[in-house]
Amino acid sequence: MTIKVIQVGENILKANKAIAEENRKRLNDHSILSFNVMGAPGAGKTELLDALIEKILPHKKVGVIEGDIAGSYDSERLSHHSIPLVQINTAGACHLEAFMIQQGLDSLPLSSLDILFVENVGNLVCPAEFELGIKMNIVVASPLEGDDKPAKYPLMYKISHACALSKMDLAEYVSFDKKRFSDFVKEISPDIRLFPLSPISGEGISDFSDWILAQSP
Amino acid sequence: MHELSIAQSLYDFLRDLAQKEQANAITQVTLRTNPYSCLSADTVQFLLRNIAENDPLFSRITVVIEKEGSETERDLVVRQVEIEHDD
């Protein structure tokens, strides 16, 4: 019996990466600016999208891919905007993968979209580990999660271009240190843009939608 | 539980490699990924052995994950595989 050590160098996620590159090219070819919206369950991703779409629709044509383990509650919640909307159910998977986005793109009128929002499955771990071919990453957080979450889930904050600190209208009712949260975020990702906001009170929504629109080529 | 889809991809890759190398057993696989990755070696190892069920190729496999390199790259690279084969 002989023991042999083989040096490999193979990316086990190469199939996902290849489809992500196809998605990226497809979106670029249609000049669609895309955002992967991630965050914990209940952080307020759908609520924020609802408010953002309201602000952005007068300026840009928007489409949405909604990712959930099961159900279509989020897409139903956004349906009043009368925009192209695809619901993906992952059937148990804790994150979206590139092939799911590919299927979503197949069902959207890409030629008539300017901006695509993808709402990932509520989870601060797994969605950060998979490339989708979406240009910008947004993490949505809320005071209810606690101010230490960036330190506990660093990859999510490391890969994100912006952090929407939502539900700020509730901050006074929970033990939440905004400076501590902000310090953790900046320590992990010095270049990330942090937007404290509240879709309920309207605080910060215009600043965030202006940032979204400013990302357009 | 993103380890499940990763373990499935890893199983397919290692099974093909073992057949090509005429291995009797795969004793260790070393993966490299992002330093901030939450990927659990114990979970991948548990899932890999369960996916393989009674396949003796995988019954003693150990999974090692090295978390290093680029902080934003999300590749998961099979860096090294240790196998046993007949002389």
Please sum up the structure shown:
Chain A has eight helices and eight strands. With 217 residues, chain A is an alpha/beta fold.
Which strands sit side by side, in order, in the main sheet of chain B? 2-1-3
Share of helix among residues of chain B?
A: 25-40%
Q: What is the averaged pLDDT score of chain A?
A: 95
Question: H/E series of chain A, N to C?
Answer: EHEHEHEHEEHHEHEH
Q: Write the H/E string of chain B, N to C.
A: HEHEE
Coarse structural class of chain B: alpha+beta
Please characterize this protein's 3D structure.
The complex is a heterodimer of chains A (217) and B (87). With 217 residues, chain A is α/β, with parallel strands linked by helices. Chain A is built from eight helices and eight strands. In chain A, helix 2 (45-56) packs across helix 8 (205-214). Chain A is globular, with a radius of gyration of 18 Å. With 87 residues, chain B is α+β, with helices and mostly antiparallel strands. Chain B has a single domain, classed as hypothetical protein PF0899 fold. Chain B is built from two helices and three strands, in the order H-E-H-E-E. In chain B, strands 2-1-3 form a three-stranded mixed sheet. In chain B, helix 1 (3-20) packs across helix 2 (41-52). The termini of chain B are far apart. The model of chain B has no long low-confidence stretch (mean pLDDT 92). The chains are: A alpha/beta (217), B alpha+beta (87). The interface between A and B is medium-sized, with 31 and 34 residues. Strand 1 (2-11) of chain A pairs antiparallel with strand 3 (77-85) of chain B, so a sheet runs across the interface.
Topology:
The complex is a heterodimer of chains A (217) and B (87).
Chain A: E1 2-11, H1 14-29, E2 33-39, H2 45-56, E3 62-68, H3 73-78, E4 85-89, H4 98-106, E5 115-119, E6 136-141, H5 149-152, H6 154-158, E7 162-165, H7 178-188, E8 193-196, H8 205-214
Parallel strand pairs in A: 2-5, 2-6, 3-4, 3-5, 6-7, 7-8
Helix pairs in contact in A: 1-4, 2-8
Chain B: H1 3-20, E1 25-33, H2 41-52, E2 62-67, E3 77-85
Parallel strand pairs in B: 1-2
Antiparallel strand pairs in B: 1-3
Helix pairs in contact in B: 1-2
